[in-house]
UniProtKB/TrEMBL annotation, chain A:
Transmembrane segments: none annotated. This is Sigma-B regulation protein RsbU (Phosphoserine phosphatase). Gene3D superfamilies: KaiA/RbsU domain (1.10.1240.30), PPM-type phosphatase domain (3.60.40.10). InterPro entries: Bact_Sigma-Reg, KaiA/RbsU_helical_domain_sf, PPM-type-like_dom_sf, PPM-type_phosphatase-like_dom, PSer_Pase_RsbU_N. The lineage of its organism: Bacteria, Bacillati, Bacillota, Bacilli, Bacillales. Keywords: Hydrolase. GO terms for molecular function: phosphatase activity. Residues 123-333 form the PPM-type phosphatase domain. It holds the Pfam family SpoIIE.
From TrEMBL, chain B:
Residues 3-110 form the STAS domain. It holds the Pfam family STAS. Belongs to the anti-sigma-factor antagonist family. It comes from Fictibacillus solisalsi. One of its GO terms (molecular function) is anti-sigma factor antagonist activity. The keyword Coiled coil does not apply. Keywords: Phosphoprotein. Gene3D superfamilies: STAS domain. Positive regulator of sigma-B activity. Non-phosphorylated RsbV binds to RsbW, preventing its association with sigma-B. When phosphorylated, releases RsbW, which is then free to complex with and inactivate sigma-B. This is Anti-sigma factor antagonist.
From TrEMBL, chain C:
It comes from the Bacteria. Residues 34-133 form the Histidine kinase/HSP90-like ATPase domain. Keywords: Kinase, Serine/threonine-protein kinase, Transferase. This is Serine/threonine protein kinase. SMART domains: HATPase_c. GO terms for molecular function: protein serine/threonine kinase activity. InterPro entries: HATPase_C_sf (IPR036890), HATPase_dom (IPR003594). CDD domains: HATPase_RsbT-like (cd16934). It comes from Fictibacillus enclensis.
């Protein structure tokens, strides 16, 4: 006797028990039994068919109308099973895709992870959180003898296409070591790579800067990136850190301008992605002033705690539903 | 969240008037409408954005693609009537420098 | 062997005729109620595909015998646009797309054997067989 036959017999037993006693225990057993049916991949029409056969055995004098009615049910259940099984198989496929994306996302993390450098004179905090599984924001630090370079980029679009594009950016930057000390030249070279390799609808915004730890100057250039903030401790004021320049990938011959800031003790450079300023809450957009207020509220803390606190507060305001990738970096001069 | 697009052609110029939001969800609709126009030889396209109250970077990407495509086919693309929020987006990304943008004329000068 | 019986499919009523023909033949061959219903559902899906996406075509049915087994074969033929990517229509989920070839994975599940042959611009032929158990 195979499993299927066993199940038919079992169904007959359960049904008979119920018909004789009409008690809750029998019904409970029937409910448990339905799991067995699913495990054995018995289709809904098969169940109805078993039911009909059992009834025919138990009540040989069932009326013709009753039998016809069951045939009608059978027909309906076939259609139901037809759609149900397709649904099941789509769910299985969805799970497979999800686990593949999971693998890709963790690969992306390992590929792109950038260690946050430690130097005595700078306190650095970084928070980068993807809205979905794959992060469309990118940041990178490189530490040299007397400098630290930092890049923040936002690839338009989200998800997998953005992630693929980002890998390209990373390797393009790695292959331009001699430009690392000149932010504007680095962007010009990167722009040519991007222009030749991305879809016409795609572009990348980037802010690239170099912090000279000897003289405490920050040299930077921007390619259409959301402006950061500069905090001057002496005046206790925040100002926008504009760096004008066209986004990467639009025009091959774009030139970029280099800017610089002199940092005193306690001064901060705040870099972000537009996911920070484009946060949408039930009350509307978060304005840049509100971000500044959040940073001000927390700025007595170490840099990492500041970015963590700002993120948690924004996450709360958006009711824990991130619409865009979020990246916030703070460089604070210590001494 | 929605995007309405109306299209009319006067003296060989395509006028597109957009209303609503251009974001990751509505961008495909705009792209479908706009791309064939930009691929015409010497096409002249004017897009009115006065009633667009939100645009994200994916939306911006559609205009970048359209700009490249019109240039390739010797056409022109003009944007006008941007709201402050949309204008800021074009300014930050530096696109105001490479695109033909006319925010003074708000639809009346036809 | 018995000759084929065919139903031309041009409108929705023809789908019902094809089902009726299938049910009669299945009953005659000795198929039980469940298999009869499976066969008619498969016929329905194939005929709907012809009616909705190919415009016109026919459903033919023939009793078959192979190595002592008896069965019923459905042959669905149309002169429609053909299916470009058969592998794709045989994937679950295509049903919802509403195009030629919708529901074929389900038909394959209902029947025991299933083959499909399609040429762009000249049409599609599907053979589906159910064996008596």
């Amino acid at each position: 006797m195979n499993d299927r036959d066993f199940i038919i017999d079992r169904y007959k037993d359960l049904l008979t028990t119920y018909l004789n006693g009409k008690n809750e225990t029998a019904l409970y057993k029937g409910q448990q039994f339905s799991r067995k049916l699913i495990e054995q991949q018995i289709s809904p029409e098969d169940v109805v068919s078993h039911h009909i056969n059992v009834l025919n055995d138990l009540f040989p004098d069932m009326t013709e109308e009753m039998k016809d009615a069951f045939d009608f049910l059978l027909e309906v259940m076939i259609g139901y099973g037809f759609a149900y099984r397709e649904h099941q198989s789509l769910r299985t496929r969805q799970r497979q895709l999800e686990s593949e994306i999971e693998v890709a996302a963790s690969m992306q993390q390992t590929l792109l992870i950038s260690d946050v450098p430690t130097v005595d004179s700078l306190d650095i905090g970084v928070k980068s959180v993807p809205a979905k599984k794959m992060n469309g924001d990118y940041f990178n630090f490189v530490k040299d003898d007397k400098s630290i370079s930092v890049a923040v980029a936002d690839i338009i679009g989200k998800g997998i296409p953005a992630a693929l594009c980002m890998s390209m950016i990373k390797y393009a930057m790695d292959s331009l070591p001699e430009q690392r000390m000149q932010p504007n030249l680095l962007l010009e070279n990167l722009n040519r790579v991007v222009e030749q390799n991305v879809h016409p609808n795609m572009f990348i915004t980037m802010l690239y800067g170099l912090y000279d730890t000897d003289v405490h100057k920050f040299y930077y250039a921007g390619a259409g990136h959301e402006p950061g903030f500069f905090y001057k401790a002496a005046t206790d004021e925040f100002e926008d850190m504009f760096a004008k320049g066209l986004v990467l990938g639009v025009s091959r011959t774009t030139k970029y301008k280099e800017y610089e800031k002199q940092l005193g003790p306690g001064d901060m450079i705040i870099l972000l992605s537009d996911g920070v300023t484009e946060c949408r809450t039930s009350k509307g957009f978060i304005e840049r002033e509100e971000i500044v207020a959040l940073i001000r509220e927390n700025m007595h803390k170490p840099a990492q705690e500041i970015v963590d606190s700002v993120f948690h507060e924004l996450e709360r305001l958006q009711e824990f539903e991130l619409r865009d990738d979020f990246t916030l970096i703070i460089l604070k001069r210590m001494v | 969240m929605n995007l309405q697009i109306s299209h009319e052609e006067t003296n060989g110029v395509h006028y597109l008037t957009l209303a609503g939001e251009v974001d990751a969800y509505t961008a495909p609709k705009l792209k479908e409408m706009l791309v064939p126009l930009t691929e015409e030889k010497n096409a002249q396209i004017v897009i009115d954005l006065a009633n667009i109250d939100y645009m994200d970077s994916t939306g911006l990407g559609i205009f970048v693609g359209a700009l490249k495509s019109t240039k390739k086919n010797d056409g022109t693309l003009k944007l006008r009537g941007m709201t402050e929020r949309v204008k800021r987006l074009f300014e930050i990304t530096g696109l105001t420098e490479v695109m033909d943008i006319d925010n003074e004329v708000k639809g009346e000068a036809r | 062997m018995d000759i084929q019986s065919c139903v031309e499919v041009c409108n929705e009523w023809d789908i019902v005729s094809a089902r009726q023909l299938g049910r009669n033949m299945a009953k005659e061959l000795g198929f039980g109620n469940v298999d009869q219903a499976r066969i008619t559902t498969a016929i329905s899906e194939l005929a709907r595909n012809i009616y909705l996406y190919a415009g016109s075509g026919k459903i033919c049915l023939e009793p078959v015998e192979q190595m002592g087994r008896k069965g019923l074969r459905i042959i669905a033929v149309d002169n429609g646009p053909g299916i470009r990517d058969i592998r794709k229509v045989m994937e679950d989920g295509y049903t919802t797309s509403g195009g030629l070839g919708a529901g074929l994975p389900g038909v394959k599940r209902l029947m025991d054997e299933f083959t499909i042959d399609s040429t762009i611009d000249s049409g599609t032929e599907i053979l589906a067989t159910k064996w008596l158990r």
